[in-house]
């Protein structure tokens, strides 16, 4: 996109690339935000096969692209921010219908007023399909766009004994906004708690599924 600093251009991946295939799904009017921050950050950390999708991109198409990598023996991850978090769960559900495991699902600020969007009626970003092996769920209580007033509604609960769930709750007193949850640049403006407890844990989980 014009005016967006996407970071350095990375070389084309070789056919035998074995790193994770990551789908980063942005929220409403947030493509530039995802490209400039979280996707760029992941690529800079060595996760070059990260593709940005929109929250209205059909879940079946995203799942189809991820399935190709999974069937080639590569780990896959679905990361969704805001409305993209709702879509990320839909993608995981579509992969479940195909019998494909999702090693990592990440939802960031998926809830709150986002539930009022008509296309999300009946959707629950806190309910995971059984094919999700680990989930990182991040939210800020002071963020009405991405968190619910009832604390329990913000948490993801395991639906299967083998699932690893990590909920990261930023308290309202920390005053972390919707956008700050995915801000990665410039480093001086990244909230230190977001860097440690959100970005740091995201990299930890990606490293875990890559090992």
Largest sheet data:
6 strands, parallel
Structural class from helices and strands?
alpha/beta
Question: What is the CATH fold-level name?
Answer: Rossmann fold
What is the C-level CATH assignment? Alpha Beta
The oligomeric state of the chains shown is single chain
Would you kindly provide a written description of the structure presented here, covering whatever features stand out?
The protein is about 30% helix and about 15% strand. By secondary structure, the chain is an alpha/beta fold. A six-stranded parallel β-sheet has the order 2-1-3-4-5-6, sandwiched between helices.
List keywords for this structure.
211 residues; alpha/beta; Rossmann fold; 6-stranded parallel beta sheet; 6 helices; globular; disordered N terminus
Condensed summary:
By secondary structure, the chain is an alpha/beta fold. The chain has helices at 31-36, 38-44, 59-71, 83-97, 151-154, 192-210; strands spanning 21-25, 50-53, 76-81, 104-108, 134-140, 164-170. It contains 6 helices and 6 strands, in the order E-H-H-E-H-E-H-E-E-H-E-H.
């Amino acid at each position: 996109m014009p005016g967006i600093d996407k970071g350095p251009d990375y070389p084309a991946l070789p056919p035998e690339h074995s790193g994770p295939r990551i789908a980063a799904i942005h929220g409403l009017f947030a493509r530039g935000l995802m490209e400039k921050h979280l996707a760029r950050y992941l690529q800079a950390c060595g996760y070059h096969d990260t593709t940005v999708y929109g929250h209205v991109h059909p879940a079946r198409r995203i799942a189809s692209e991820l399935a190709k990598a999974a069937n080639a023996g590569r780990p896959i991850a679905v990361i969704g921010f805001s409305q993209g978090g709702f879509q990320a769960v839909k993608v995981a559900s579509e992969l479940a219908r195909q019998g494909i495991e999702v090693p990592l699902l990440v939802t960031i600020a998926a809830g709150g007023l986002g539930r009022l969007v008509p296309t999300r009626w009946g959707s629950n970003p806190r309910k995971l399909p059984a094919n999700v092996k680990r989930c990182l769920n991040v939210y800020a209580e002071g963020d009405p766009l991405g968190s619910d007033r009832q604390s329990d509604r913000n948490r993801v609960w395991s639906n299967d004994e083998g699932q690893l769930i990590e909920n990261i709750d930023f308290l309202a007193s920390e005053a972390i906004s919707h956008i700050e949850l995915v801000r990665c640049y410039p480093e001086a403006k990244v909230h230190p708690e977001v860097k440690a407890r959100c970005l740091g844990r995201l990299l930890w989980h990606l490293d875990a599924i890559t090992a």
